[in-house]
Amino acid sequence: MTTDIIELNDFIVLIEQSNASETFIQKCEIDGDAVGFAFYGSGNVELEIKHNQQTKYLTNTTGLAICFFGNQKVEFAHKIEPDKPLQSISIFTKLKNLPLLPQAEKEIFEKYLPELLNPQEHFVKGPSFYMTLEMQLAVQKIFHTTYTENTRLLFLKSQVNELLSHFFALLSTDQKIDFSEKDRDKIFQAREIVTHNYSQPPSITQLSKMVGLNSNKLKKNFKELFGIPVFKYVQEERLNKAYELLQNSDKTVQEAAWEVGYESLSSFSNAFYKKFATRPNDVRQKCFSNKS
């Protein structure tokens, strides 16, 4: 488990990732009264919250964006399952810092999260949402950035602001997804299948049979849950994997394209540039120049 702690003005940001081979529990506490936001990019985790001799659980947090109030009397613990890489971003700000925010930002907190600014318990759960595509991309950018030192801090600040902006935008539209827990689990199962088979993914018909949902419901619910169609999600997974291969291995651009399922090098290069605003060969050259 690695945790990168960043101070950005009045916010504390925890960037956490893990790829454990066995189940373990990561505990943390909050120093003083604070409002927190957590964005789960990946992983199969269970969040345990203890306070006042009570224990609460937030399960299946993969893909969720949550908010809450907590203080030093609350103990948080992530139960992280093996071989399920965890990527989470937590953002905290002390209640005493909120009056110091610019007026427009302060009004947003006061309008949409009054129950967290005026808590009646040591822990108060606020609204939660499934992350939109834009939020997922912001999370991915945080974990994939190659910026360092002050440039990295400036970049992280922009992404944190983007995540919070999207979260409050969802609050303002009161966006809700009406799924049964059973259907939601099937959609997560479908995502797991295409995530591990991105180079040769099953067809929609095959995937619907594998998870036990009809094709139309699978396509509709997948897009509502993750903000992106199944085929687009597969493309995102292919490009993310290709970026990792070019950055961390000796594979050529052609080899990386083939490995993630692209037969056409030009199609791969164009899709890569559209997503990352850089060509795959530039990523590979930068990687080799850094190694030398």
Question: What is the structure about, briefly put?
Answer:
By secondary structure, this protein is an alpha+beta fold.
Structural class by secondary-structure content: alpha+beta
The description of the largest β-sheet is:
6 strands, antiparallel
State Rg: 20 Å
Mean pLDDT: 83
Number of helices: 11
Oligomer: single chain
Strand content: 25-35%
Strand order of the largest sheet: 1-2-9-4-7-10
Low-confidence stretches: none
Q: Give the total of beta strands.
A: 10
What is the share of helical residues? 40-55%
- Overall, the morphology is globular
Measured between the Cα atoms of the first and last residue, the distance is 29 Å
Order of helices and strands: EEEEEEEEEHHEHHHHHHHHH
